[in-house]
Amino acid sequence: MTKFAIGQSMPRLEDAGLLQGRGVYSDDVRIDGAAHAYVLRSPHAHARILGIDTTAALRAPGVVAVLTGKDVEADGLNPILCSVPVKNFDGTPRADPKRPILAIGKARFAGDPVALVIAETLAQARDASELVLVDYEALGATTDVVKAAAPEAPRLHEELPGNVAFEVQFGDEAAVAAAFAQAAHVTRLDIPNQRLVANPMEPRAAVADYDAAADKSFLYTPSQSTHIIKNAVEAVLGVKGKLAVRAQNVGGAFGMKAMPHPEQALVVWASRRLKRAVRWTSDRSEGFLSDGQGRDHFTRAELALDKDGHILALRATTHSALGAYMSFFSPVPPQSIWVMLPGVYRTPAMSMRLYGVLTNATPVDAYRGAGRPEGIYAIERLIDVTARELGLSQDEIRRRNFIRPEELPFKTPAGLTYDSGAFQSVMERCMQEADWAGFPARRKAAEKSGKLRGIGLAMYIERCGGGGADEAPMKVTRDEVVVTCGPQDNGQGQITSIVQMVSDKLGVDVEKVRVVTGDSDLTPPGMTGGSRFAAVFLAATSGSADAIIVKGMEEASGMLEAAASDLEFRDGRYWVAGTDRSVSLFEVAGKAGELLTSYKRVPEALTFPNGCHIVETEIDPETGAMAFVNYTIADDFGRAINPMLLEGQVHGGVVQGLGQALLEHAVYNADGQLITGSFMDYAMPRADDMPNMKIVFQHTLCKTNPLGVKGAGEAGTVGATPAVINAVVDALDAASGVRDIAMPATRERIWRALQGRAA
Q1: Starting from the edge strand earliest in sequence, which strands make up the sheet with 567-570, in order?
Q2: String of b and e for 577-598 (b: at least 16 CB within 10 Å)?
Q3: d(CA 523, CA 474)
Q4: What is the pLDDT of residue 757?
Q5: Which pLDDT tens digit goes with each residue over 125-163?
Q6: For the chain, which end, N or C, has fewer CB atoms within 10 Å of the first or last residue's CB respectively?
Q7: 378: region left, alpha or beta (phi > 0 left; psi from -120 to 50 alpha)
Q8: Is position 249 within any domain?
């Protein structure tokens, strides 16, 4: 029997089963007699659908049904809707382009679902799909976010006046203009943030079953929120209250599995039509085309400073690519760029014009960090270029502009209030751990070997812990503690954290704690995303544990024949104060039948994890190949529930950030075809691409939640991209005066920069 307290590095409870092959993913769900679905997708990025002939396909062996947009219309299905309202700068609401689950009249990106072929086997469904005849009229396409915003660009949705779905003005333009007018120095920088593919280990999947007697459907699908998927699919099909969504193990999500995709509604619809189970699993090529993608922003930014290098104002214009349709959360990431633009710096005035633009590409939505990495990348690159233009060191420009501890709580011009943090102290700790002072000598030694050595520093801060309430129902029986969890684990170690919290609060062995999750019929609403789990759900779990202790006190007082006021609770037992008389929590629950409670945590404010990344790199000027020499991180996550899990989250986040910085890019050609549509073309980070990381924690407790935690799941991604690009630029600047390079900084792009050639 084992107990773990908060703050201990408890090993993940989830790992043993996963490593022994006992995980249960959506494709492991076996339902007798299930038919197989195959999605026929548009080969064109933009085309009218003049007609679809399914006659031959319906006659093919094993085919059960072929469904098209006409069937969607005939059954009166609703489109998938974006859930986030946006008000344009002129007061009008954002555009609301409709996304049918099968294309109706028009395909708007290469990969847009056009028909669903259902057969007894997947091979039969694939073969039959080749017999579906679709008459396309190809149209002009654009995937460039700035060009797509122009009035003359091919229009994706005829019911809209153009491709700009929303245009928002943030900040005080007049104050910013006045600050720029008196500035002693202005830095200007174009900052592209390229499109990425999520590529989780487990592809998307959906298995639907139908209980005709109850008129109820069951959908098994990997998700970050069973309730979000349930509500969205019910809305599409018009079957409110007739669907349960279940998710067991989820093999990676990164934001992409939080939002609904057409295939989830398609299989439920098909299952209800056929009154039998229907299953669909994406293959990797299909995932490249159809999984919700990430990033794809272009920002033009300017920073105004006085003669001493103090920031006066910041302004930016961002074009954010939405893809062919507005996905479920898609307005959130670009608006998060705005709120993170000040970073950890005093910025007296700030403004930003944001354009959300429809393009002939796969829809974009939240991807690890969801706008916070893009915002921090923009300010940290601006700060780095400014330091070089002013002849200041990377750390000195930051020292002059840090928000100081005595200024906290500090309200930024973007409207956030930072409650805690010691930004200069964290930077100096990271510099010490990285041996910043010894870098010049290491650079000289590298030069003797013909290599270019660079060092890059980046500060980060992000907002976490927001969103709706989380509730943590808790039950204690004579044998166990059961916690019901709405947020869905997808690799973060959430079950371990819940068990550790309960073990610490109730003093029970971890083997006595069971977590129920992943079933919309059993769990309250909740979502995993935005690094909110610890600050919201774990805080709710802590509250439920406190309530359980109070609830058992009266029963314990009767069992111990003592007044409740004379009892104290410790180590899983109720004690009569000053005596050796006690009774266990489980004995009390057994006597009472069971103890039940539920605590709901409503976030009253956000949390702000922050830190510093320092990257040291070495470049071979003859080939452009870059190697990591050192990677040092100092993080402030508030209270650490489980330091080992924190380090794991940082490792994973850094890998995703470095993947973007150095390797990954979803590239479309002029016709809107994805030309990086496989792992032969899209460079995923591998083990030998990644550095060893030295991670230290320097926590200041968060003041906006009872646990003092800040969140950690996306922090590594937020800090990694600017740190590595700043390091690469530092090496290039010393060798050839290059002060900027676009992501991904591939070896070819680095080599071309050294040769003075455009990539």
Answers
A1: 567-570, 573-576, 582-584
A2: eeeeebbbbbbbbbebeebbbe
A3: 11
A4: 66
A5: 999 999 999 999 999 999 999 999 999 999 999 999 999
A6: N
A7: alpha
A8: yes
pLDDT attached to residue 3: 82
Asked whether the predicted pLDDT for residue 758 surpasses 70, the reply is no
500/10 Cα distance (integer angstroms): 8
Q: How does pLDDT run across 286-324, given as a tens digit for each residue?
A: 999 999 999 999 999 999 999 999 999 999 999 999 999
Dihedral angle, C-alpha 363, 247, 272, 236, nearest 10 °: -40
Q: Do 592 and 614 fall into the same domain?
A: no
Query: Contact, 426 vs 608, CB < 8 A?
Result: no
The last residue of a domain, from among 556, 577, 601 = 601
Q: Looking at the structure, tell me whether residues 646 and 687 fall in a common domain.
A: yes
Q: Which of 601, 618, 653 is the last residue of a domain?
A: 601
Pair 657, 696 in one domain: yes
- Give the span between the Cα atoms of 537 and 67, in whole angstroms: 41
Q: From the centroid of its chain, how far is CA 92? A: 29
Buried-state track 12-37, b at ≥16 Cβ within 10 A, e below 16: bbbeeeeeeeeeebbbebebeebbbb
Are 210 and 97 in the same domain?
yes
Is there a single domain that holds both residue 705 and residue 610?
yes
Q: Which residues contact 202 (CB under 8 A, 6 or more apart)?
A: 25, 26, 27, 222, 249, 250, 251, 252
At residue 349, the 3 state secondary structure works out as strand
Task: Say how far apart CA 42 and CA 68 lie, in whole Å.
Answer: 12
Residues 242-289 have pLDDT tens digits of: 999 999 999 999 999 999 999 999 999 999 999 999 999 999 999 999
Q: Which residue type sits at 479?
A: D
26-38 tens-digit pLDDT: 999 999 999 999 9
Instruction: Quickly tell me which residue has 């008459």 as its tokens.
Output: 135
C-alpha–C-alpha distance, residues 611 and 425, integer Å: 10
CA dist., res. 428 & res. 431, Å (int): 5
How many whole angstroms separate alpha carbon 297 and alpha carbon 302?
Answer: 16
Q: Is the pLDDT of residue 1 over 70?
A: no
Name the β-bridge partners of 304. 186, 313
Positive or negative torsion for Cα 323, 325, 329, 330: positive
Kindly state whether residues 470 and 456 are assigned to the same domain.
Answer: no
Question: Could you list the residue range(s) of the whole structural domain that residue 497 is in?
Answer: 15-23+466-601
pLDDT at 466: 83
Q: Which pLDDT tens digit goes with each residue over 572-605?
A: 999 999 999 999 999 999 999 999 999 999 998 9
109 in Cβ contact with 323 (< 8 Å): yes
Q: Is 654 helix (H, G, I), strand (E, B) or coil?
A: helix
Beta strands in 412-501 (DSSP E): 417-418, 452-461, 470-476, 481-485
Ordered DSSP codes for 546-577 = HHHHHHHHHHHHHHHTS-GGGEEEETTEEEET
**Percent of the chain with pLDDT strictly greater than 90:** 97
- Backbone phi, then psi, for 682, in 5-degree steps? -100, 115
Please indicate, yes or no, if residue 564 is contained in any of the structural domains: yes
**Do residues 355 and 164 make contact, with C-beta atoms less than 8 angstroms apart?**
yes
Q: E strands along 225-348, which residues?
A: 243-246, 278-281, 294-305, 311-323
Is the pLDDT reported for residue 759 higher than 60?
Answer: no
Name the token pair of 357.
């633009």
Structure tokens at 613: 């990344």
- Which pLDDT belongs to residue 604? 87
How far is Cα 53 from Cα 43, in angstroms, rounded to an integer? 16
Residue 178 within any structural domain of the chain: no
Both 249 and 100 in one domain: the answer is yes
The C-alpha atoms of residue 712 and residue 326 are separated, in whole angstroms, by 28
Look up the CATH number of the domain holding residue 657.
3.30.365.10
**Domain match, 405 and 548 both:** no
